[in-house]
Design brief:
The chain is mainly β. The protein contains no helices and 11 strands.
């Protein structure tokens, strides 16, 4: 069983920065696609950024140019650097690891970390 543990959330003023980290309990990042998602009360969880096992990245339009996803396979850790934060970035941020192996999929989520951006 894979466990993902996020850290780095907190309260920051608009325009500030935070870096989220997500550590896995086992070495999976070289073969899993990784992502950061966020959710606010009453809304569906939305994609923020993803990074494939090969290192290709993808971002939601709302965070392009402000957020950067990266990973360190040796440390089993994926990061989300968030700059120029806005109040609308306030959410619980979740780390995800996903892999499709033939007909079977492996999908793991962290417990979430709260990010609050004050205006």
């Amino acid at each position: 069983q894979v466990q993902l543990v996020e850290s780095g959330g907190g309260l920051v003023q608009a325009g500030g920065s935070l870096r989220l980290s997500c550590a896995a309990s086992v070495r999976i990042f070289s073969i899993y696609h990784l992502g950061w998602y966020r959710q606010t009360p009453g809304k569906q969880r939305e994609l923020v950024a993803t990074i494939t096992s090969g290192g290709a990245t993808n971002y939601a339009d709302s965070v392009k140019g402000r957020f950067t996803i990266s990973k360190d396979n040796a440390k089993n850790t994926v990061y989300l650097q968030m700059n120029s934060l806005k109040p609308e970035d306030t959410a619980v941020y979740y780390c995800n690891a996903y892999r499709l192996d033939g007909m079977r999929s492996y999908d793991y989520w962290g417990q979430g970390t709260q990010v609050t951006v004050s205006s």
